[in-house]
């Protein structure tokens, strides 16, 4: 039996197939950004230099046209259209919840140093109304087509398919009563623990920063894994790090605001004295004062009523003075 569709969906479905204007990249494809991306991702950047021509890693395709840390800060000439207007119309019908379903990148060819990219967005499809465990709503699929500007005519170099489920929750919030229940404090999510990572979290509970070490070649590695990427040995043990290091890189999370994390939320990539790097939060400092090269020291803090212990880092000066987080 096919259910009759809501009349208000006619306006939403009328948008299917609509193409939204160009969003340009701030910069042309360039070697410094490729090198930095490869360093952060732990990829050998030299593999993308062939016969003197710099080639961007395919997985960077979406990166070139991102707006940066300021939301909707796109280069001059970019469209001001909102490609998510179908989602806004669904929100107006009470389907305010959203969950990303899948994202698929496809590549037409490698992009090279000096090329300038842009993308356009097409509302590809909207599913029939679906009822899931999360609630009732619609799967909305958008396709971003990436182009390289060329004198002889712009060339499509790849696509990004992005699908979300826009829905009305199955268990909506109950209306307030005369005696509202006390709000439940949000807890930090617990890490996924496997046989490869259990030592790290056990060490944190004991106040130790343990790093995985290959028994074959002695290389330290983090995050932990079952096999050494250098010599492919499956044999490993651990070494207790000093906990001292420097800020190698950092980001400050502005959006979304996710309780119970602080807002703004500074996240650092710390290079330990032992040579390996790990991602953590930095505490005891204002987000705008974090600097690359800053000396930091690990400390172990408990959350969720002692259920979770996390290694976090504090600037050395602040640690010496006992400044509260």
From TrEMBL:
Signal peptide: none
Gene source species: Simplicispira metamorpha
Designated name of the protein: OB-fold protein
Residue ranges occupied by any FAS1-like dehydratase domain in the UniProt entry: 15-141
Residue ranges constituting the ChsH2 C-terminal OB-fold domain according to the UniProt record: 239-300
InterPro entries: ChsH2_C, ChsH2_Znr, FAS1-like_DH_region, HotDog_dom_sf, NA-bd_OB-fold, Thioester_dehydratase-like
Superkingdom of origin: Bacteria
Domain ChsH2 rubredoxin-like zinc ribbon: 201-236
PANTHER family: BLR3430 PROTEIN
